[in-house]
Write a structure and sequence with these properties.
Elements: E1 5-7, H1 15-26, E2 30-31, H2 33-37, H3 47-56, H4 67-70, E3 78-79, H5 88-94, E4 99-104, H6 107-128, H7 133-151, H8 165-182, E5 188-192, H9 197-204, H10 222-266
Parallel strand pairs: 1-3, 1-4, 2-3, 4-5
Helix pairs in contact: 3-7, 6-7, 6-8, 6-10
């Protein structure tokens, strides 16, 4: 399946609800930051974070993994949220038949939700990054691609550091204006938080499903979400270290057995 929808809206504008809605409409997965932080095989994997991290460190590259390998080869019908929204123009050129959805909400409401989300993320990283390096990688990568360059927040890893409202709101409003200016109106839907099925389905030319529009990841779900992210990172660390631990224990046991055997022989 080729990519049908590109989400140009910043995170915390209803992008996770939109992800679920598009998955219902197309009966296919939709890429989202959740796909990177909480990979769900076979469509996403733990290597996605490594791919994005490596791409962000390559000064000669485009700053993102190969789109076909990341999205269409794995059956994604849509892609939304960060980091996708940063690359909306590149994706729009790569997939000229895909439609673009800009999810929005009032700037002050967005900032309140966004800053709470990222403050919670960094509490998890500061508390558990020592035990799960994947968390630290995620924080460093996101600082490199968005927290720093978009919001002038380069040191969220320090206790007491947080977003300043003015640069965040300025970046948010400038991004939304840039999307509207860049994407032809017939290809773009500006979708307000809470709009529901009707404008979305009319824009995509699809029937309205006989189920409520998804409402997920409200503020109360942030702590639970990052608890899952933390646990996934810990499991990832355990799986990576287990073979080395088993090998070390096996070697130690072999050495101990040899020493014991040697002692018996000498007796």
């Amino acid at each position: 399946m080729t990519l049908q929808v590109i989400g140009a809206g910043y995170g915390r504008t209803g992008t996770l609800s939109l992800k679920r809605a598009l998955e219902i409409l197309y009966n296919a997965p939709c890429y989202h930051m959740e796909s990177i932080l909480l990979p769900s095989p076979p469509h996403s994997s733990s290597s996605d974070l490594e791919l994005w991290d490596a791409a962000s460190l390559d000064p000669a590259g485009p700053g993102h993994p190969d789109w076909a390998a990341l999205l269409t080869d794995r059956g994604y019908a849509a892609a939304v949220d960060f980091p996708i929204c940063i690359h909306y123009a590149d994706l729009a050129a790569a997939f000229p038949d895909a439609k673009v959805i800009l999810t929005v909400r009032p700037a002050a409401d967005w900032f309140r939700s966004w800053s709470y989300l990222i403050d919670t993320l960094w509490k998890v990283i500061r508390g558990w990054g020592w035990a799960a390096p994947r968390l630290r990688t995620a924080g460093d990568w996101q600082t490199r691609i968005m927290f720093g360059p978009l919001f002038d927040a380069w040191h969220l890893d320090r206790h007491g550091e947080s977003f300043a409202q003015a640069p965040c709101v300025a970046a948010y409003e400038a991004h939304n204006a840039a999307v509207v200016a860049a994407i032809p109106p017939e290809r773009l839907l500006v979708m307000n938080l809470g709009d529901g099925w009707e404008p979305l389905c009319a824009f995509l030319g699809l029937p309205v499903p006989n189920v409520p529009y998804p409402r997920v990841n409200a503020a109360g779900g942030v702590t639970a979400f990052f608890r899952h992210v933390r646990n996934a990172a810990l499991v990832h660390r355990a799986r990576r270290t287990a073979p080395a631990l088993v090998a070390a224990v096996t070697m130690a046991a072999a050495v101990a057995a040899t020493a014991l055997g040697g002692g018996v022989d000498r007796a």
